Write the C-alpha cells for this entry.
Amino acid sequence: MRFLLPLTLAVTAFLCCPPAEALTNTSGPAVIHVSGRSVRFYYNRFLLEADGAVRVTTSQGMIVTGDAFSMDLKLNRFLVAGHVHVVNASGSQDGAALSDFLDYNRIYFVPIVQTVDASGRDPAVPDRWTFMNGDFVHPAKGREMPGDTFEFPDLGRSKPFLLAGAATVGARSYVRFEGNRIDLLNGLGAYVPTPSYYVNFSDNQHLGANSLAGASYDATYQFAGNANSISAVHLRNDPTNGTYLSFEQHVSGPKTYAVFSINPMTKPSKYFNLLLSDQPSDTFQLRTFTTFHTFQYGLSQPLESGQTTLIQATQALPHSFLQLSTTLTNYDMLAPKPEGYDGHGTLPNHPFSAQLNWQGFTQRIGKLPLYEAVNAGMGVQHDVFGLQQLGGVTYSSIWQHFAGLELFVPSLKIGNNPADTKNYYVNAAFQKNRTWNSSGHYTDTALTSGSLSRTFDRHFQSYIAYAVNNTGDYYGTMQNLAYPSYVPVIGGVPIYGYAAFAGFATFRTLSLDLTYGNGSNFSAYVLARKHNDFPKPVPGLFPAPPLNVIGQQQYPYYLGQPPYDLTLDVRARINAFSAIDIARTYYFNFGNQRWSPGFVIQVTQ
Amino acid sequence: MRALFTAAFVLLALLGAAPQSVTVTAQVLDYERGWLFITTGDGFRVAPDAAIVWGNPQTRDFARITFNAQGVVTRIETSHKPLPQEGDLAQVHQFSVALSPAAPNPELGAPPPGRCGHTRAGKRVGLTITVQVPPTTAATDSVYMTSDQSAWNAQAYRLDRIDALHYRTSLSMYSGTVLRVLFDRGSTQSIQLGQNGIEAKPYLLCIGDEDAQAFRVVVYRWGDEQSGQTQQIPQALPTPYNPAPFPNLPAPAPRPTLHP
C-alpha cells in the first residue's frame, strides 16, 4: 500500500513539470515570449497588452523591441509599436511599428530607413515592407496592407484580469505568465500575487477533460502548462466535503489524452482518479477510468482503501458500433481484519463485470416522422462471495443477455403558421429494454413519454409532458419467493397497499415547465410535477436514494418519490467569467418535508 | 459704402491667401525623428517648429493633428483618452510619406480563408442553439454547451429544456466569432459521442452577420451512457450489484437483492 503514494507523487512530479519550450523550436505552435514594464491580460477578450521597454522574441528567431505590444490571442496576431527595433536572421532595422499575422505568415512593417539625399544629408524616411513566409531578406516594398494592421483594441475602462512582467504565448494554444498578480474578483481589480498562471484557449477539448466530481464552487488555478499539458490546483466546495483543495494534471496528444487527479486532496476521504483515452484510428477508441480511494489523514496509514477500474473499448461498424465494457472493483485493499481499522470496516468483495453491447444507428422509418434505434448484447457479473441468493442457491456468476428498442418522434409541428411562436410541437418517445439473467429472472423497463410545447416569444417557452415508466422483475413461478407479499409497519401504521407489490412498479409523471431566458445573462425555470406511482409513496417506507455530492437526485425514477414537487432554478451571470446557478425543490409537506434538504448551488466559470 | 467694399475685398483676399489647413483625430503609433505615425500605418512629416500641446505624443495616445497645405504636421494636441472623431483619415493619407511607391496587394481583394471569410465582423448577433437529445436523457438532466471560448468548461453554458427531446439557449455574440462547441450533461465524461460511439469532434460555429442565427444539433449518445452497466462516476466506488431493478426497496425486506 505504502508504495502507491510515492509512486503517485513520482508520477505527479513527472507529469506536472513540462520542459519550457525552446524559442527556436519551430515544431508545434509558434511560441512568442513578451516582456515589458507592464504586461496585462484581458481574459474576457483574450487580449494580451504590454507597455514600456517591450521585448518580443518569437520561435522564428525574430527579436522586436518597442514601446507597446498588443496581441489578440484569438485572431492570432500581434503588434509592436513605438521606437521599434527588429533583429532577425538578415540583420536589424528600426521602424515605427510591426504587425505579425501568424496565421497568414505575413509580417507588416513600417521601417524608418536612413537615406542619403542630394545634399549629402541622411534623412530617415518611412516605408512599408511586407515580409512573406518568413523571408526577411526580400521584403515586398510599398505593398498595400490590410486596413486594421496597426490598430490597437479599444480597452475602454475594462480592468485586466492579470498583471505580469512577462508572458509566453503558444499560438492558438495557451498563454503562460510568471510572477504575476491576478484579479480574484474577476473585473473588480482585487489583485493577489501568484507565482505563475496558465490559460489554455486551444481547440483541443481533451485538455479540458476533467476527472473530478461535481462541486458547488470550483476556482481553478492553472499554475503550469504548455501546448500539451496543464497542471492545476482547484479550490472547491460542496455540501458533502465542505471546502478543500484538489490537484489535476492533464496531458494530451493528437490521439491520446490522460487526466490524473486527487480529489479532495485535503480531506481524509481521498479519491485518486486516472482517466486515459487512446484513439488509434477514426473507428476505434479505448478509454479507461480508474479510481483509487483511501481514507487517511495526510499520508498516514489508510483506514479504508478501495479501487475500481472501468475499461471501455469501442469499435465503429457500418451503421452501428460494438462496445466492450468491463469493471473491476476491489472494495478493500487492506489486509482483512475482523475488527476493522479504527472503526472502519473492511469489505472482502472484489466483483467483476463485463458487457458487450451492439448499438445500431438511429434510423428514420420510411418517410414517417418516426425514428428507431435498437441495441443488444450480453454480459456477465461475477463475485466469488456471491451476487444473489434465491431458493437456497447462491449465484456467484450471473450471465446476462439484453436487448433494447427506441422509437421517437422529434418536433412534430401542430399548426402551419410561418411564425414559429404560433405553432405547437409534439415530441414522443418509447423505450423498452429487457435483460435476461441466468439467475432465473428477467427485468423489463418500458418508458413512454410525450410532450406538447410552445415558444411564446424570444424569452418565454413552456411545455407540458407526461411520462409512464413500467419496471418489472419477472421470476415466473418463483415470483412470490423473490417478492413475497408483506405489510410493512411505519410508525405503528400498517401499510397494506405495499402487500400488492410483487416486483412490478409504475411511475407516472405529469410535468409542467415554464422557462424564461434572457440571452446568456439570466435564465430561470419553474417545473411543477405530479407523480402517481405504484407502489404508493409512504413517508419512511422507502430509504431515500443517495444524492450526488452537490445534493442533486441521481435517479429519475425511484420508489417513494413525493407525489408533488415544484422546482425553481435560477441561473445568472455574475460577470464576464462566472455564473451562479441556484435551485431548490418544494415537496408540499410530504412526510413533513417541505423543501429539498438544501439549495443546489453551483458557481461556474 | 466704398470703405465697406474695400474691407470685404481685403477680407476675401486674406482668406484666399491663407494656407488651407486640415485637422484630424487619430491614435498615435509612434513619434520619432521628426515623423508622426498613426494607426493607419501612415507616417507624416512634422514641421520642426510644430506646436505640440499636452506633451510629446506617446504610443497609444490620441491626438488632434493639424496639417498645413503641404501636408506637414504643424500642430499636435495629445490626449490619453479617445477624442471625438474629426476629419477624414483617408483624406490625409495623401500626406503620408513612404520611400517605396505604393504597390497593389492581390491578397486584399480575396476574402480571408476560413469559415468566417465572408462575414462582416463586429456586429451583435442573436444566436439560438437547439439540441435534440437522445430519448435516454432523463427528465431531470441538465444539458450544457462546452466550447473553446470557455476553456472547455463542461458547465459553461446551460441550455433550457423546451420539450421531451429538446434543449435550447439563446446567446448574443459578435459576428465573425469562430467557436468550437460540444454538448454534455455537466461533466466531461458525459460529453456527446458520435453516432458511431467514438468521441465526437467539436462543431465549428462561425457567427455570421445576419441579425439572428440558428444552430441545430442532434446528440445521438452521451459519453456517460452505458447499456446494462452501473455508471462509473468520479469520487465513488460502484454500488454493489443489485439484481433488482429498484435502487431503494424497503429494508429489511425479503427480496432478491440479499447480498450473501
Residues 273 and 357 of chain A are 26 Å apart (CA to CA). The two ends of chain A are 37 Å apart (CA to CA). Chain A is about 5% helix and 60% strand.
